[in-house]
Specification:
Elements: E1 3-7, H1 16-31, E2 41-45, H2 51-58, E3 67-70, H3 78-81, E4 89-93, H4 101-109, E5 113-118, H5 125-136, E6 143-150, H6 157-168, E7 173-179, H7 182-190, H8 201-216
Parallel strand pairs: 1-4, 1-5, 2-3, 2-4, 5-6, 6-7
């Protein structure tokens, strides 16, 4: 069965779509198979706004390292999708509001773990708290906070305050921080995912954050094939 990771937060504009698409791109590149038309990564949008699908549609089909589909009208189909042998990972872009209860509930029913994006901005604290306390924790849903959209040019004060807020609430937090880059904002309009960013310092740094996130989430790598143990030869160590 595929491992399903959903990006969830009541507040819009916190980076759910950007994180979903770019993490899927990294996973698709690492796991391989997309070039042969056999991607092992699927992106699902259960958000009625379908921003993920609009973005993916703009990327050249032969360059897109994952499959994708929209299923906000029948989100319960996620339970079926995760059982497909073709996919190792399914990444879900969830609705921008927890008021879409049916959609969000069906999404979480089929989800193995949740990543909660949180920008370093005080206005995002309350919606994030409501998402965790009214949706995730009552369901005993495994989740981790991902701090993102942090602009290093603003200094570390807002970042460290947000880290302290999360740690003070005793919420599990990912060590990876997704930095703010203009290239992320332009990517959807230009039909690119992070694995296609132009070479150069900015492109490398922007990709690096998602490689770190993939590593921290345990994405990529395949187990070694089992080998038969040879019987010990008498007289030798």
């Amino acid at each position: 069965m595929a491992r399903v990771i959903a990006f969830v937060n009541q507040k819009g504009g916190v980076g759910k779509t950007t994180n979903t698409v770019n993490l899927a791109a990294i996973a698709g590149e690492v796991l391989g198979g997309a070039a042969a038309g056999e991607s092992s990564v699927l992106v699902v949008s259960t958000d009625p706004q379908a921003s993920t699908i609009w973005w993916a549609d703009r990327v050249a089909e032969e360059e897109l390292p994952f499959d994708y589909l929209q299923c906000d009208d029948k989100p319960e189909e996620l339970a079926r999708l995760k059982k497909l042998d073709q996919y190792e990972f399914v990444f879900v872009d969830s609705p921008g509001s927890i008021e879409d209860k049916h959609i969000l509930s069906a999404t979480l029913d089929a989800t193995d773990e949740v990543v909660v994006p949180l920008p370093p901005a005080a206005m995002a604290y309350a919606p994030t708290r409501r998402t965790i306390e009214t949706v995730l924790e009552p369901r005993n849903m495994p989740y981790r906070i991902l701090i993102g959209d942090w602009d290093p040019r603003d200094g570390r004060v807002d970042l460290e305050q947000t880290q302290d807020y999360v740690d003070g609430k005793e919420w599990p937090r990912l060590n990876t921080v997704i930095r703010h880059y203009k290239i992320h904002e332009r990517a959807a309009a230009e039909g690119q995912v992070c694995t296609q960013y132009p070479k150069g310092r900015i492109g490398l740094e922007a990709r690096e954050d998602f490689f770190r996130l993939a590593l921290e989430l345990g994405i990529g790598g395949r187990p070694l094939p089992k080998q038969k143990r040879k019987s010990p030869v008498k007289g030798k160590v």
